[in-house]
Amino acid sequence: MRFSFTLVGSLDARLKRTTKVDENKKFMLLRLQNPTASMVSMARHQERIATNLANANTVGFKRDRVFVEALNERLDAESAPRSDRVPTQWADMASGGLKSTGNPLDVALQGDGFFVVNDEAGDEERYTRAGRFMIDSDRTLRTPAGLTVQGQDGGPITVPDQPGDIQISQDGRLQLNGREFGRLRAVRFDDPLRLERREGATFAAPTTVPIEMDEPTMLQGQLEASNVNPVETMTDMITHYRLFETQQRMMRTSDELLGRVSKDLGTF
């Protein structure tokens, strides 16, 4: 499903261009403003739903939600309700289901907390629930996207180059052949909703401070799935698409009526 913004954009531009019209035209233009605002809001909402649906199988992904606050509620010249809409988007931090993989480098966090990874430049710490890790050619522990996994000391974790099975304890300690070589860093936040989404299932914390977790609960050989419900999300997408179409029909009708009125009253 794709939305066309041709009608929305043309009418919105017409509303902004109109400065010297008679009262009848003003009333007609007011009829277009609410549907225009609603369609723009629904189109953005549909984009968010599409992003969630596309990440239904992304490990550790947290679905986006949005809340629209109506401010400065008032009546326009036609006594129709108007308001200023302020959307707020945030990531729903509810846990996804756990799935067993048997991979010794797959780790799931139980309860609160995030793994800490670094971007390629090392300039920004990122936080994620996606515990799918791998060993690169330099024996450094990384995510599939190439982000460096942080150890408890704040640096990267280097895996010894020797045969054997890697064990990860519940508190994040890594061992190879009975010898500890690092510990996964886990942090939590007083208000996770202040985290800002980066790529995929990673977040940054430019306005809040991470709190170190001394006793996290980590489960080796398991991964946390996305918390997106595909069926519920698809239903939501269809519902909003139909609402969009309804508003679109209303705008077409008003625009046709406006065209006839403009033709009778003079050049618009």
Label this structure with key terms.
2 domains; alpha+beta; 268 residues; disordered N terminus; three-stranded antiparallel β-sheet; seven-stranded antiparallel β-sheet; 30% helix; 18 strands
Instruction: Name the poorly predicted regions.
Output: 1-7, 15-25
Helix content: 25-40%
Please give the radius of gyration in angstroms.
26 Å
Strand content: 25-35%
Structural class: alpha+beta
Topology, number of strands? 18
Determine the number of helices (DSSP H or I, runs of at least 4 residues).
3
- The total domain count is 2
The average pLDDT is 82
Element order, helices and strands? HHEEEEEEEEEEEEEEEEEEH
Oligomer: single chain
Largest sheet at a glance? Answer: 7 strands, antiparallel
- General shape: elongated
Note the topology.
Elements (H helix, E strand, L loop, with lengths): L5 H12 L5 H32 L9 E12 L5 E11 L6 E3 L6 E4 L3 E5 L6 E4 L5 E2 L5 E2 L5 E2 L16 E3 L4 E4 L2 E5 L2 E3 L7 E2 L4 E3 L6 E2 L4 E4 L1 E3 L5 H36 L3
Antiparallel strand pairs: 1-2, 3-18, 4-17, 5-6, 5-9, 5-13, 6-15, 7-8, 10-11, 11-12, 13-16, 14-15
